Every structure is written in structure tokens, then in C-alpha cells.
């Protein structure tokens, strides 16, 4: 019997040991990972020089890749050595007052990348910001994976983005991919290129980490959505093309010459339209659906537009002078009644009317009941009500509990009303002597 118990105990210990080894057999990460070294160089050379904080958001498909990402992060934080504050977040971001500008995404698949970009609201990220996507898993079709990630970025007009991944032929190297949407060979397309090669802790090509990608459109055609709206935009249809004039028309012509792009005009009868998501109309709906590249037409700032699209920097400002005619001076009655609103005066009048009715009704009551309400010796209750409201004193105070309770309530209300009235009256007399709204 004892032998069988020992056998069962040994078998249980052996099984639990095997299960624990199977469950907690974590991949061991050593320092020297090329992705970690490349990311550390980007953090030190660019992010620390241009920002006071960087947001690192990560997402993984399974637990193994989470541990791999943790190892890369440990090495990066060790190399950076507090040169820039880093905020680590999961793909479900906390809501911030301002969109995130300097971002690093650590992902292991295309689904992980989409989970970060699409799970959060549109105001979580500033699409004009700078993005580094770290692909920690090497897939067979990794070039197609990089292209899909960059294509999603282009769909959101995220231009300043780099994707770093392993070199499939050399584990000591890392590639940095990016795309140029406008080149002499194509317009508005995503064709990933190996922009930089990182080997032995050095960049091979020594390129700028985030180059200017829209400084030259190489004669590409852009679609503009606008309408005739003098003096901001005036459209003239000529035999050899369309001429834009007005404030925004001149800006459009100058930009076209400076950045080397041509224009195709699209107009809309609904003008600015309404911003209602997929049901947006007018030029707002056209730009949200991707039918035009940009729009002009004296757009004013509004919260509905702010939540869906960005505005340009101000390029035209004019001083505004308001001429307001002088109003009539306050009359003595207006100065007397102005500190309190009409609803408060109405309530006060109702209180005095109710007091007068109660006093009149109490005269027909028995003396002991009238004494219970007003107290003994109170021969002029209505006059005493007005006296207490104006801050006067009583020669005879009530000695019954109910009468004292009524008196305390009335004194407290009168104190609040008088203090509010006097404070507001002082502010009115201290301000303008003219009534502009009369």
C-alpha cells in the first residue's frame, strides 16, 4: 500500500514538472538584436532630437511574440538610456487630449498593425506625424506584408512612415522600408523600397530617417475640389484650360508651380456640404471618399470638420473692427431691478402675496392658533415680515417652536437674497453706465 502511494506521488510530481516546463518554456532573447539596435538608433538620432516624448504601441498575435517584443523593448530602453521619455501602451489606447504625433508600432503581423490603426478613433493619431513600424516576425511573403502596411498608411495619408524588419538572408542585418508616393515613374502609388540597411550598428546609406516626400510632385496630376466663391476662389474657364484667381486661386497657382503638379477641377453644387460620416455631402463628402486630393473654398473652422479632417495653416488674415452704437443710459428703475432676474422678482412678489394671504386668513382663527403661528405679542406680522426681509430687528421674538422655525427660514432666505442683490448691484454700478441692449 505504501509503495503504491509513493508511486502515485512520484508520478504526480513528474507530470506537474513536465507541464510546468511545457507551459513556462519562454524564448530566450539575447542583446544584439538588429531590430532593437536599429530602433535605438532611430530613437536617439530622430525622436530625441525632435520630440519630448515618444509613444510605443505594441500588438502581438500570441504569447511567444509578446515575449520576443518584450526582449526587443528591453534592449531598446537599455540603449536609449533615458535620452527621451517613452510611453508604452497596448493597442487599446487611452484617450488623450491631443493626437499622438511621434509613434512607434511594434507588431508581428498585418493583423496586429490593423488592430492598432483601426481599433482606436480617428483622433488618436496625428496622421501628419512620424511613424516607425517594427515588424518582429519574418514571414515568407514579408515584402507583400510591408506593402500592405504602407498601403494602409497611404490610405490615411500617413507619409512619414518607415517599416523595419529583418534581412531574411542575414540575421545580423535589418532593412528599413518606406515609400515615395510621387516619383518620376509613378503618381500616388505605393511601391516599397529598401530605403536603408542597418548592419553592425551602422546605417549603410546614411539617408535621412524621414525624408521630404511631397516637396516635388514631378508633374503629377492632383484633383482639386472647389467652387466659384469670390473673393476667395474665382474660376475662369478658358480655351487652353482653367484659370484660378482670388485669394485661394493665387495660392493654388503658386503651389502648383513650386511643387510641380497639375490640377484637375471638380465642382459640387452642395458646396461645403455636411460632415456625417459615410453620408457626408458636398466637398466634405468628396474628400472623405477619396474622390479629390484637396479642397479649397473658404472653409471655416468647425468641430464637425475637426473630427474628420485636418485644416491647412492660416494663409490669409484680415483685421476685424466692430462698430457698436452707444446705448441709452440706465434709468433709476433699471438700476434698481437689474441685479436680479425677473423670475427672482416674481418669486419674491409671490412670497409676499402668500404672506399677506396667510396673515389675513389668520385673523379669523382662534387666538391660541394665531399665537401658535406668529408667536405671542406679534400684532403686526406682515409688517414684521417686510422688516426682517430688509434686515431690521424684532422687538418681540416668538417663543414657540413652529413660529421660531418659520422666522429662521425667512431670515436665512432674506440674507441670501440681500447679499446676492448687493453684490450684483455693486458690479452693475462699477461697470458701464450705458445699457447696450436697450
TrEMBL record:
Primary localisation category: membrane
Pfam families hit by this protein? LBD_receptor (PF24061)
Note whether Iron occurs among the keywords: no
| Topology in membrane | Multi-pass membrane protein
This protein's GO CC annotations: plasma membrane
- Locate the Putative ionotropic receptor ligand binding domain: which residues? 27-216
Q: According to its UniProt record, where is this protein located?
A: Cell membrane
Signal sequence span is 1-20
- Locate the transmembrane regions by residue number: 342-362, 402-421
Key words, A-Z = Cell membrane, Glycoprotein, Membrane, Receptor, Signal, Transmembrane, Transmembrane helix
Acetylation among the record's keywords? no
What is this protein's record name? Putative ionotropic receptor ligand binding domain-containing protein
Q: Which organism is it from?
A: Lutzomyia longipalpis (Sand fly)
Amino acid at each position: 500500500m505504501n509503495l503504491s502511494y509513493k508511486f502515485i506521488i512520484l508520478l504526480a510530481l513528474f507530470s506537474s514538472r513536465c507541464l510546468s516546463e511545457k507551459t513556462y518554456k519562454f524564448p530566450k532573447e539575447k542583446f544584439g538584436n538588429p531590430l532593437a539596435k536599429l530602433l535605438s538608433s532611430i530613437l536617439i538620432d530622430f525622436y530625441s532630437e525632435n520630440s519630448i516624448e515618444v509613444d510605443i504601441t505594441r500588438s502581438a498575435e500570441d504569447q511567444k511574440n509578446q515575449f520576443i517584443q518584450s526582449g526587443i523593448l528591453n534592449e531598446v530602453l537599455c540603449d536609449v538610456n533615458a535620452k527621451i521619455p517613452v510611453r508604452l501602451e497596448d493597442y487599446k489606447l487611452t484617450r488623450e487630449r491631443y493626437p499622438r504625433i511621434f509613434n512607434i508600432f511594434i507588431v508581428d503581423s498585418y493583423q496586429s498593425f490593423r488592430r492598432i490603426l483601426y481599433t482606436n478613433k480617428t483622433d488618436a493619431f496625428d496622421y501628419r506625424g512620424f511613424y516607425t513600424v517594427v515588424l518582429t516576425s519574418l514571414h515568407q511573403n514579408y515584402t507583400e506584408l510591408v506593402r500592405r502596411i504602407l498601403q494602409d498608411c497611404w490610405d490615411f495619408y500617413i507619409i512619414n512612415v518607415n517599416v523595419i524588419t529583418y534581412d531574411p538572408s542575414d540575421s545580423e542585418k535589418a532593412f528599413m522600408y518606406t515609400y515615395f508616393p510621387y516619383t518620376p515613374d509613378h503618381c500616388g502609388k505605393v511601391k516599397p523600397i529598401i530605403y536603408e540597411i542597418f548592419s553592425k550598428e551602422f546605417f549603410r546609406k546614411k539617408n535621412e530617417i524621414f525624408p521630404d516626400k511631397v516637396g516635388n510632385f514631378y508633374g503629377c496630376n492632383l484633383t482639386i475640389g472647389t467652387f466659384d466663391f469670390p473673393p476667395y476662389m474665382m474660376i475662369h474657364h478658358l480655351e487652353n484650360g482653367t484659370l484660378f484667381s482670388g485669394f485661394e486661386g493665387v495660392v493654388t497657382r503658386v503651389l502648383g508651380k513650386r511643387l510641380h503638379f497639375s490640377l484637375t477641377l471638380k465642382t459640387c453644387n452642395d458646396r461645403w456640404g455636411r460632415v456625417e460620416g459615410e453620408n457626408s455631402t458636398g466637398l466634405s463628402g468628396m474628400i472623405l471618399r477619396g474622390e479629390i486630393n484637396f479642397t479649397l473654398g473658404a472653409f471655416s473652422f468647425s468641430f464637425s470638420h475637426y473630427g474628420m479632417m485636418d485644416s491647412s495653416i492660416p494663409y490669409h488674415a484680415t483685421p476685424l473692427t466692430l462698430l457698436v452704437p452707444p446705448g441709452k443710459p440706465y434709468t433709476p428703475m433699471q438700476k434698481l431691478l437689474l441685479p436680479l432676474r425677473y423670475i427672482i422678482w416674481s418669486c419674491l412678489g409671490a412670497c409676499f402675496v402668500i404672506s399677506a394671504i396667510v396673515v389675513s386668513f389668520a385673523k379669523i382663527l382662534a387666538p391660541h392658533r394665531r399665537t401658535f403661528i406668529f408667536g405671542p405679542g406679534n400684532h403686526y406680522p406682515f409688517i414684521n415680515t417686510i422688516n426682517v426681509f430688509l434686515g431690521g430687528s424684532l422687538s418681540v421674538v416668538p417663543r414657540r417652536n413652529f413660529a421660531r422655525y418659520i422666522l429662521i427660514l425667512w431670515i436665512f432666505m432674506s440674507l441670501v437674497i440681500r447679499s446676492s442683490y448687493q453684490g450684483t448691484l455693486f458690479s452693475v454700478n462699477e461697470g458701464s453706465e450705458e445699457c447696450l441692449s436697450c
